[in-house]
Amino acid sequence: MAQLVEHSLLLFLVFLSPFVASAGITELNSSSPLFGIEFPPFNTAVADTGCDGMLVAAEEAREEQTQPASASPSPSLKLRMTHRAAADMAAGRTRKDSFLDSAQKDAVRIETMHRRASTRAPGAYPPRRALSERLVATVESGVAVGSGEYLMDVFVGTPPRRFQMIMDTGSDLNWLQCAPCLDCFDQIGPVFDPTASSSYRNLTCGDQRCGLVAAPEAPRACQRPGEDPCPYYYWYGDQSNTTGDLALESFTVNLTAPGASRRVDGVVFGCGHRNRGLFHGAAGLLGLGRGPLSFASQLRAVYGHTFSYCLVDHGSDVASKVVFGEEDALLLAHPLLNYTAFASPADTFYYVQIKDVLVGGEPLNISSDTWAVSKDGSGGTIIDSGTTLSYFAEPAYKVIRQAFVDRMSRSYPLIRDFPLLDPCYNVSGVERPEVPELSLVFADGAVWDFPAENYFIRLDDSIMCLAVLGTPRSGMSIIGNFQQQNFHVVYDLRKNRLGFAQRRCAEM
């Protein structure tokens, strides 16, 4: 527990100082800008356009007959996404408190991912054909309300009400804290009240979709399949879980067309009456994993097969956007846009296949077995928006750590026995310390080059540390959201690939 607290204290310091990258050697700099991206303007109004939007087979069949295969989707769906900093400061929480929670959640989350990966979930539904709309959301830093996660604005129910939900590509279930809230964590704003929405209805225990979630430890017998509700239990770790009734509800989403919105009926979500864990401030969680119950999977008939996001700096009070729909022209024209194929298995998590790690432009001697997925489902590498820092399997981490130690300038004294993070350096009086470059090389040849601010932490004026940690030999490696900051990250499920390009996410 002492180590976990030390981990948390250091994570809190992660976001105190921005950096910038230069060619060959990466420099730390608190003032230089990053590359930018533009998104369509966010429509803050929520208006029901009258378009039904139900995800039904008949609608998909009509689209198959009337829309050419090459037709491009029209306006995108948009949701507001923020990091938690602004809300937390308003609530009186300190950054220290926020990152104590964040570190605890990271540790529990990783343990949970290891267990979930070794017990594969049922395969996802086959991809649906896109209709004619693209959807867009905004994203904000979530540090301020309790963790290093990112929050999306979602409008739920009839009439639609706004809720801030954690964006999580590492889980599938969408859920909100619901009244009556029998055992709930603190959140900003009121919990969702099913009785106040005319479009809410429970999913019955006899519904086929009820079989996609785990029942509570003592499930009730399904005596009336067409009437009794479907209870669920979904866990993220020893301290994080949600229990309630699986239900259907209308989600109102903004489109890229000015002033346009669309109501999507019959979205499956968890109405959580008992919720515990490190979700402080958020109203619930929006799953963007590959499973059939995730928000990304359920709305695929509306927006197609691609979604993307661009994460603002941790601690930023500026919102950026997540886009559900085909890539925009600005991104496709980006000279540094790169793609790598998703690796199997393809259940909840988005796996990628690392081949090499470059430090200072040189490949490291890391066994290929380190990156492999074991027969029991453990290992491999995933990209995850819900984990804060990046974690590499212990054998790889040791080699990466030593590579930085060997290549760092001797003008920066190594700080011995610094808690948790390693290596750390004394950079007192140095405005722009130079650090070796870090790149990931994937099995298909794609290369992800990271700026220094995505893998080094300037803790204060004198201390700078490597911002990656190790996981057990059997554990999976994770590219966390800190390493994804200021990159436009694209999940292309039609072509089964991940795209990435450096952008200025706050300038949107």
UniProtKB/TrEMBL annotation:
Domain Peptidase A1: 150-501
GO biological process: proteolysis
Molecular function terms, GO-annotated: aspartic-type endopeptidase activity
Signal peptide boundaries: 1-22
Keywords: Aspartyl protease, Glycoprotein, Hydrolase, Protease, Signal
Active site, UniProt feature: D168, D384
Pfam family, any one: TAXi_N
Family: Belongs to the peptidase A1 family.
Protein name per UniProt: Peptidase A1 domain-containing protein
Species lineage: Eukaryota, Viridiplantae, Streptophyta, Embryophyta, Tracheophyta
